[in-house]
Specification:
The protein is α+β, with helices and mostly antiparallel strands. Helices cover 36% and strands 29% of the residues.
Length: 95
């Protein structure tokens, strides 16, 4: 399943989380299958998000969308996001 990793700094985690939850319906309609957030232990306002998508085309379209940029600004993202795309993930914890 295609995935994207996004890392950025935010002004306030609680505000950002509310905005992420409010944007959930749009993300799901765009093809998102899962959304995981990781916070840095050294800097709690540095977040890493990993999302899985139904297709690579839908994922890349969403990442390029003006709606996403607007939502990130209103959520309090204060740094340019670092974005990496992945074709698939493999769970090596079993076995």
């Amino acid at each position: 399943m295609p995935s994207v990793l996004i890392r950025h700094k935010i002004a306030n985690y609680a505000k950002w989380k509310r905005a992420v939850l409010a944007f959930k319906k749009f993300r799901k309609a765009s093809g998102e299958k899962s959304f995981r957030c990781y916070r840095s232990s050294a800097s709690p306002n540095l977040v890493t998000v990993v999302c899985c998508w139904s297709t690579t085309a839908k994922m890349k379209k969403f990442i390029k969308s003006a709606d996403l940029r607007k939502a990130m600004r209103s959520a309090g993202v204060v740094s340019k996001p670092e974005i990496q795309f992945f074709a698939k993930a493999e769970d090596l914890s079993v076995g």
